[in-house]
Amino acid sequence: MTDLNKKPEIDAPTGPAPETLEIVDLVVGDGDEAQASSTVEVHYLGVSHSTGEEFDSSWSRGQSITFPLRNLIQGWQEGIPGMKVGGRRQLTVPPQQAYGPAGSGHQLSGETLIFVIDLLGVR
């Protein structure tokens, strides 16, 4: 059973990175559903597919974050709608839906990223 009160763990990826967005529900929520126009409150963990190393985590900062979905990377804009509050979803996001190809100026450009997202609230 998955404990949504604890920071998730992501197993080190094996094999080649996917070329398209992968969406896997780890826990299906039963609350309000996120829409493309929603502002969401989430806890999340992000790791690099190439290294398996964590690059960001709201859990590590000790507090969730809230933001309009339309302001996020494309992988989140496409991967969170349809998710329900109380759910935990894993998104594997290729570079073109994250921070662009290598050399795009962001430290994570060119990377396939894996996120585990807990949806805490929607408005």
Break the fold down into its secondary structure elements and pairings.
Layout: E1 22-27, E2 39-48, E3 54-57, H1 58-61, E4 65-68, H2 74-79, E5 88-93, E6 113-122
Antiparallel strand pairs: 1-5, 2-3, 2-4, 2-6, 5-6
EC number: 5.2.1.8
Protein name: Peptidyl-prolyl cis-trans isomerase
Catalytic activity: [protein]-peptidylproline (omega=180) = [protein]-peptidylproline (omega=0)
What does this entry look like structurally?
The protein has 123 residues and is mainly β. The chain has one domain (22-122): Chitinase A, domain 3 (Roll), CATH 3.10.50. The protein is built from two helices and six strands; from the N terminus they run βββαβαββ. β2 and β3 form a beta hairpin. The termini are far apart. The model has no long low-confidence stretch (mean pLDDT 94).
Question: Would you kindly provide a brief summary of this structure?
Answer:
By secondary structure, the protein is mostly beta strands.
Features:
123 residues; mainly beta; 33% strand; Chitinase A, domain 3; isomerase
Q: Largest sheet, described in full?
A: 6 strands, antiparallel
- The best one-word shape is globular
* CATH architectural designation: Roll
| First-last Cα distance | 28 Å
- What percent of residues adopt helix (DSSP H or I)? under 10%
Count of the separate structural domains: 1
Report the radius of gyration as a whole number of Å.
14 Å
Per DSSP E runs of 2 or more residues, the count of β-strands stands at 6
CATH first level: which class?
A: Alpha Beta
Indicate the structural class: mainly beta
Helical region count?
A: 2
Low-confidence region ranges: none
CATH topology: Chitinase A, domain 3
Average pLDDT, to the nearest integer?
Answer: 94
Organism: Labedella populi
Keywords: Isomerase, Rotamase
Protein name: Peptidyl-prolyl cis-trans isomerase
Catalytic activity: [protein]-peptidylproline (omega=180) = [protein]-peptidylproline (omega=0)
